[in-house]
Design brief:
Blueprint lengths: L1 E5 L5 E11 L6 E9 L2 H18 L9 H13 L4 H4 L1
Antiparallel strand pairs: 1-2, 2-3
C-alpha cells in the first residue's frame, strides 16, 4: 500500500508498508516500512522488488543473535580503535 506524506521541509514523499510473512519462531506477522521515495512510481517499483525477493527466498529470518555474540563482535572492533591501555 503506497501512501503519500509531507516531510518537515514541506516536500512530498512516498512510503509503503509491506507484509513479509509470518515469523516461524514467534508466529507473529512481519512487516517492513520503506520511506522517502520521491515519486509514487519509485515506491511501487521498490515494493514490487521487495515482494519478488520475499516470494523467491521466502521469509528471511536473521539468525538469532545473543547479546554475548554481539558484544564479542563489538569488542573486536573497539579494540582496534583505542590504545592498548584503554582496552585493558
Amino acid at each position: 500500500m503506497i501512501k503519500k506524506y509531507k516531510k518537515r521541509d514541506g516536500s512530498t514523499a512516498y512510503m509503503f508498508v509491506a507484509y513479509l510473512g509470518t515469523d516461524p519462531i514467534t508466529g507473529k506477522q512481519k512487516r517492513t516500512t520503506r520511506r522517502g521515495f520521491k515519486t509514487e512510481r519509485d515506491a511501487k517499483i521498490a515494493e514490487a522488488r521487495l515482494q519478488a525477493e520475499v516470494d523467491k527466498n521466502g521469509f528471511l529470518n536473521n539468525d538469532i543473535t545473543t547479546f554475548e555474540e554481539v558484544y564479542k563482535l563489538w569488542l573486536e572492533q573497539y579494540e582496534n580503535t583505542v590504545r592498548e591501555s584503554t582496552y585493558q
